[in-house]
Amino acid sequence: MKKTLTGLDFKIQEMAGRIRELREISGFSAQTMALKTGTSEEEYLRCEAGQSDLNFAFLYRCALVFGVDVTDLIEGSSPKLRSYTLTRAGNGQKIEQAHEMSYYNMASGFQNRIADPLFVENKYSDEAFYSDIELTSHVGQECDLVIRGSMKVQVGGHTELLHEGDCIYYDSSIPHGMVAADGQDCLFYAIVLRPQEPSLPEAGGDRAAMIETAQSPDPEARIYTRFVDAPEDANGKLQSIAFKNEQSFNFAFDIVDALGREKPEKLAMLHVALDGTERRFTFKDMKDASSQAANYFTSLGIRRGNRVMLVLKRHYQFWFAILGLHKIGAIAIPATNQLVEHDFSYRFQAAGVSAVLCTADGDTAYHVDIAEADTGMKLTKIMVGGSRDGWHDFNAEYGLFSRRYTRRDDAPCGGEPMLMFFTSGTSGYPKIAAHNYKYPLGHFITAKYWHQVNPDGLHLTISDTGWAKSLWGKLYGQWLCEGAVFTYDFDRFDASKILPMFAKYHITTFCAPPTMYRMLIKQDLSQYDLSSIQHATTAGEALNPEVFYQFRKATGLQIAEGYGQTEMTLGIGNLTGNLMKPGSMGKPIPGYGIDLVDPDGNPVADGVNGEICIKTSGDHLPCGLFLGYYQDEERTKAVWHDGWYHTGDLAWRDEDGFYWYVGRADDVIKSSGYRIGPFEIENVIMELPYVLECGVSAAPDEIRGQVVKASIVLVPGTEGTDELKKEIQNYVKKHTAPYKYPRIVVFRDELPKTISGKIIRNQL
After folding, report:
1. Could you tell me the domains of the chain?
2. Long-range contacts: 131-137, Cβ < 8 Å, 24+?
């Protein structure tokens, strides 16, 4: 009769598979492993095949041999907590097995433990008590403390009877064992101490450091105080956030036009064209030009609620146009000029686009024309920076209209739709995230407490206007804080051209995605004057620690990470006055109720991977969270239900409340029972000086299910040889758990990315 497999059987087989995987990686024979684990070769092979119960001593010895934590073998993932971990009664990591013993590891989430505290249930058995005690051994020391019942313990040739409160301490390399005595079950704590080697300090460590403000206290009552209450402590740390008058808020009228009247000469934007032409725009300039744009669009029949696509790269006209659309109530849809005809066709139809403002550069207008014909739609087409048959000429026409645009009593505001963003998803058609007129207020924290925008400074966020990130750093929050933005209208990122601009224009605050930082640090930063930069930030994807340390070495500045999505504003971040740990996204910001949950929707403990979720029920709806996916109720409900918005991103939280990015839920690699986050491997590979970019993904494998694959772009002048592949593999084995090393290494000229620059892992 075929045996029915229990949950315990599956767990044993999973652990056995992990042990087999590590043995093969380490190159040990079964005979060698038997010798190292104190078993016969036959017994070892039975354990490795999952045909024998795996006691803790055996698992412990295997972990020491492979240089991993025993939790790696039991759970398939490494512990993460470094300061402390709390385990309540009954919640330890259960290691269930035969021989009448059940173990619970009470500190399984703690990284680099020097001891394993085990709560042990030892069931009484006449057969076990009157038989020879089964002995085992492992390197280190052990302390056993009886808390209920009695226990017979044998250490070498000595046998002792222990009762409640008795403690025995011994060299665990001596064969030992124990059974319950006196006819009753026994409960005891076994503290297993590992052999210690001198510890090496971690490169840079993860010690928290205070994020100091890059600006002195501002005595002036800024315009944002009309809409935001943001009390701070003595260190400039934000205590809470509350919004007021938001139901009537319209950024174009309430901020830009107001500043244009009250501070007409204050710099709003310094714009540098590709050819080096410099243009300085004051808030009065922006007020006037956006009013002209609003009057111009109205003359073309663009009305409130119409969807208007803006494909304008980093042209200064983008700011005129989007503010003009905000004034008339038309919905702006920023888009990148990297789109081609089929991209436009889908977007025109999905969003019901009625008008397009398009750059004259390249073939973008041509692709728009083809898409218009393919869809049979009749669009109002407006070109910026040139002319074309069938298109209006923005530069030649908008200036003919009045600089006055009067705000009506029923002007668009508050909860009315204002923006639509097409997401840059790596699979399927992009979704359309819709935002209302309160969305700019959500970016107040983004600019003031994360970017640390100075009202007298100049802020640079490197982003194309086709993406939400540009509005994080090139418009709303910065102008709420009355800071000026710097815009360089480049075609292709070139670190050698951008780096001199920091000194030339005295850029004070800087934000870029990790990809850009990786390119910057590959330059000789000592050749550039970066002393004007007071604060640096990053978002869009996780930052590799190596990039963090190299940038800090060159500038003395810590890069403050932040987390958000197209669907939201900054939700997690390293803010002014807070502690910061290198590599961490920071902590949830005021106004966002964030937790990590498991697939069943239950909150996870510290040190455990969970999905980042945002509370939306009751009074918890954050200012800046999207309205939903436009005309897509099914996809909206898939991520927004039960009072939570589910981001689809995985992270873990440490004992101090800092969040650490793991990856998209779909990106986690499951190999031989191990669960591996691609980002942690990318971090190790990026430490190698000849690696420019790296993307880690899963590759199918008949035996292991999936294996780790590393796709690597090398710095110019480095040849991708088989020897280099082996060097990379060995480096990963040495600097992280061996099972995480990439079995497949490929060298590529570039990595597949979304048009927003994120690596598409399923195409690696």
Report:
1. 7-193 (2.60.120.10), 285-437 (3.40.50.980), 668-763 (3.30.300.30)
2. 133/159, 133/177, 133/178, 133/179, 134/99, 134/177, 135/175, 135/176, 135/177, 136/38, 136/55, 136/57, 136/58, 136/175, 136/176, 136/177, 137/38, 137/57, 137/172, 137/173, 137/174, 137/175, 137/176
How many residues appear in the chain?
764
Looking at residue 316, its amino acid is Y
Is the four-CA dihedral 573, 574, 578, 580 of positive or negative sign? Answer: positive
Q: Is 240:428 a contact under the CB 8 Å cutoff?
A: no
CA atoms within 13 A on the CB side of 692: 18
Distance CA(93)–CA(230), nearest Å, equals 43
Out of 315-324, 378-387, 675-684, which region has the weakest mean confidence (pLDDT)? 675-684
> Could you tell me which residues come within 8 angstroms of residue 320 by beta carbon, excluding any fewer than 6 positions away?
286, 289, 290, 292, 293, 398
Taken in order 529, 468, 481, 451, the sign of the CA dihedral is negative
Alpha helices in 202-314 (DSSP H): 251, 258-262, 283-299
Determine the Cα angle at 242 with ends 648 and 443, to 5°. 50
Give the pair of three-digit tokens for residue 346: 């889908």
- Which positions ≥6 away from 28 have C-beta within 8 Å? 36, 65
User: pLDDT for 609-659, tens place per residue?
Assistant: 999 999 998 788 999 999 999 999 999 999 999 899 999 999 999 999 999
Q: Check: CB of residue 153 under 8 Å from CB of residue 186.
A: no
Q: Is 564 left (phi over 0), alpha (psi -120 to 50) or beta?
A: beta
Q: How far is CA 58 from CA 137, 258, 466, in A?
A: 9, 72, 57
